[in-house]
Amino acid sequence: MKKILALVFLGFFSIVNAAQALDAKKAEKFVQNVTTAGIEELINSDVSDSERRARFTKLFNEDLDLDFIGRFVLGRYWRTATPAQRDAFIDVYRKLNIQTWSERFNEFKGKHFEFLGTETSKSPDQIFVNTQVPMEEGSPASVKWRVKETNGNMRIVDIIIENVSLAQTARSEYTAYIQKSPKGIDGLISDLKSKLK
């Protein structure tokens, strides 16, 4: 009886480990598609700034879960925000990220992402994909992608560059701003709008 139970558990854990390995490969493949087809080809393409912005908008809307990230970075203030404030914040946060990263990723022009495997996350529906970008001088730049799977669809929910989480950084900055601003969330929304070109 014990031998049968041992075989059952062994088979079960083999299935679980295989599923985890499959998820890791799926997440890594997803990020490879984003970095290669989305970022590398887009950055290195000879197109106008408006066309590049349009393509980045499509990339970010399809491959990043900016609604999820927006709720996270607003933190506890998401619960107290009105529906109108939530919509306004997500809208400007989305636009600001597209603007920022369409420019920021130009730093990687002519370069390619190297993949270094994955790491598990405390959240069962999330996983980290590790990459690095060789630079002309110094050590390669470390870029870690936090990927979330919902209903079989992969989306990026954070980018950690040189151990700095963009989502955590935004959350700290926005929380501090809301606490100091007499207008609270509305003040933050107005400030973010002022940064849009």
Summarize the structure.
By secondary structure, the protein is an alpha+beta fold. The protein contains 7 helices and 5 strands; from the N terminus they run αααααβββββαα. The protein is globular, with a radius of gyration of 20 Å.
Protein architecture, described:
- It is a single chain.
- The chain has 197 residues and is α+β, with helices and mostly antiparallel strands.
- The protein has one domain (2-194): Tgt2/MlaC (Nuclear Transport Factor 2, Chain: A).
- The chain is 60% helix and 18% strand.
- The chain contains 7 helices and 5 strands, in the order αααααβββββαα.
- A 5-stranded antiparallel sheet has the order 1-2-3-4-5.
- Strand 4 and strand 5 form a beta hairpin.
- The longest helix has 43 residues, at 2-44.
- The chain is globular.
- It starts with a helix and ends with a helix.
Q: Layout of helices and strands, plus pairs?
A:
Blueprint: H1 2-44, H2 49-63, H3 66-74, H4 77-80, H5 83-104, E1 114-120, E2 126-133, E3 141-150, E4 153-161, E5 164-165, H6 166-180, H7 184-194
Antiparallel strand pairs: 1-2, 2-3, 3-4, 4-5
Largest beta sheet, briefly?
Answer: 5 strands, antiparallel
Distance between the termini: 70 Å
The CATH superfamily label reads Tgt2/MlaC
Query: What's the number of helices?
Result: 7
Radius of gyration: 20 Å
Inertia-based shape: globular
Architecture, according to CATH?
Roll
